[in-house]
């Protein structure tokens, strides 16, 4: 946060620790800060062993002159929308929703009225175990382990990513902010995939939907569309292409670069099976209409490979 010039905001967030909510929950230590929200550990008086986190909207608390009711309303809407999404979507790949709570915000002057006098919405949800996929990939790719064992693991991860996105798509949503940093590797030996930040989800085929994303994971065609100022719209095909660039990083350990096509030679030499490498290449090249189609092709190619071996 210091690098972002928000040291004062960090100090403000620390003042929220220990705040009690209307029902049995308390904010604990600050865990992470993203572009739109801050994540705190949560203690549950009814179940001290529960693994929960809280998300609070991020606003320039350290610059009270910049705060307006309109700005607070817009920031809080992000948290409230995410809570509704978790409730409606109900995907097992997303964090489990515990509920939407409220706290009195000591960082605001209630006397200003409007949004300033309202309680702060707090999203309580499951705290996922495991590791962020980008950190896990960095460690594993540098370990120099047995390629056959790595192949099984990476193949399983690739299938898990596609399954999670396909499940979300069937429920009417696209994971627009798709990248390894928003995916979680959970459990041994299965290495299951969970989607970490529900704030990256948008409704499918909604022309008015926002499109949070990191440019490196957009296919070059869409990157240049965005650079020209054209709006990006969520679609199954776009998610499939972003999945290809995400899985390229899974397979090779190399993050894609914005506006550039991927090194397919490096992909084919990576520690994944040929069927996985071929499907990842097809996804990145925008050859698949959705992730479900890619899963079907991957299963068919894997069966052929088993029969011929």
Summarize the structure in words.
- It is a single chain.
- The protein is an alpha+beta fold.
- The chain has nine helices and ten strands.
- The strands form three sheets. The chain has a five-stranded antiparallel sheet with strand order 1-2-3-5-4, covered by helices on one side. A three-stranded antiparallel sheet has the order 6-8-9.
- A hairpin with a 7-residue loop joins strand 2 and strand 3 (52-57).
- The longest helix is centred in the middle third of the chain and has 24 residues, at 147-170.
- The chain starts with 6 loop residues before the first helix and ends with a helix.
SSE topology:
Elements: H1 7-14, E1 25-33, E2 37-44, E3 52-57, H2 69-89, E4 97-103, E5 120-126, E6 131-132, H3 133-141, H4 147-170, E7 173-175, E8 183-186, E9 192-195, E10 201-203, H5 220-227, H6 236-252, H7 264-268, H8 274-284, H9 291-308
Antiparallel strand pairs: 1-2, 2-3, 3-5, 4-5, 6-8, 7-10, 8-9
Unreliable stretches, pLDDT < 50, 5 or more residues?
A: none
Give me the Rg, rounded: 21 Å
Q: What proportion of the residues form beta strands (DSSP E)? A: 15-25%
Major beta-sheet overview = 5 strands, antiparallel
Structural class: alpha+beta
N-to-C order of helices and strands = HEEEHEEEHHEEEEHHHHH
- Helical content stands at 25-40%
Quaternary: single chain
Spatial shape: globular
Strand order of the largest sheet: 1-2-3-5-4
SS elements, strand count:
10
Tell me the span between the first and last alpha carbons: 53 Å
Number of helices: 9
- What do the pLDDT scores average to? 90
